[in-house]
Write a structure and sequence with these properties.
By secondary structure, the chain is of the alpha+beta class. It has two domains: 188 residues, no CATH class; 153 residues, Trna Endonuclease, Chain: A, domain 1. 57% of the residues lie in helices and 13% in strands. The chain is built from 17 helices and five strands. The protein has a five-stranded mixed sheet, with helices on both faces. Helix 3 packs across helix 4 and helix 14 crosses helix 17. The chain is globular, with a radius of gyration of 24 Å. The protein starts with a helix and ends with a helix.
Amino acid sequence: MTFGKLVDSIQLVHGEMAAQASKAVNVSLTLRNWIVGCYIAEYELNGADRAEYGKQLFSSLATALKSAEIKDIGKRQLHNFHLFYKTYPQIVQTASAQLQHLLPERIEIVQSVSAQLQVPVKTLLNRLSYSHLTELFQVEDNLKRTYYEVECIKGCWSVRELRRQIASLYYERSGLSNNKEKLAEMVKSGAEVAEPKLAIRDPYIFEFLGLKSKEVMGESDLEDGLLDKLQDFLLELGHGFCFEDRQKRILIGDTYGFIDLVFYHRILKCHVLIDLKLEKFSHENIGQLNTYVSWYKKNMMTEGDNPPIGLLLCTQKDHPLVEYALAGMDNNLFVSKYQLELPKTEQLQDFLETQIKELGTTHDQ
């Protein structure tokens, strides 16, 4: 045993145990969601007072669960759990063995696809996260869904890669291709691979574990430090910034987004959304922030509010760049007003340069 072997051994143990923890949490989360879907389906069939709720079942249930301090299960999630159960009834093979005491007394299972065409249940649970399965149970065709299950498992695709392949019609392209092996090799070479460890950024995971966005979303000490300093800096300006949230989670369609800092500006009477990127400026960055601004404009504006403003801070060391996102704002008077009330881009760039040097030096020591 040398020192180098000692380090390697600890690294190996850490990696394998982290992967096991990830798998255990994911399986528990997936089974919980399936069993919730099972109860909903059983209630729809046999609930004594089901007629009273009818089409409002998901909304009423979400409200009741929120009152019971289960805040991570909303109307959309309940609908997804129900669809998950309907799409993957074969999971009962595992759930009934492990968690029989948590299942309804009687379960009406209808196999949706021939057993010969199914990926084994244990493989699904151990190799795919619930986020993967959420993408898969949106695919209505059984054969197509099984195809993506197999390819996702074989390629160790990330959730984003699975979503991309479904959207790009990989199944259909494969069926039309004369050289399927070449197409598969092309897809494999460009695919984004999932890491075996717990993907703590997965909102399903950290909600299930009772963690808050702020506790898990920071990518580095430098990023956390910059956000702390930026938050204080804006509040100290005295120009009307009121802090609302950090790592604000929003749901756009079936995709979660996270906004680094959210303020309400009492003089401008609008929300100010701030996104920090420790990288060079890209059009994808400003596009993402513009999407957040548009979502806030549609969902969070109240009577008397002005349209929200997005502030993008992109930086490499000693080279910050600041961009504003206005989401198609056409009120020139308001644009002029915000330019007077908000910090100048030069002021923010100077602030970032100073903080990067200070925090970078601190964390390098």
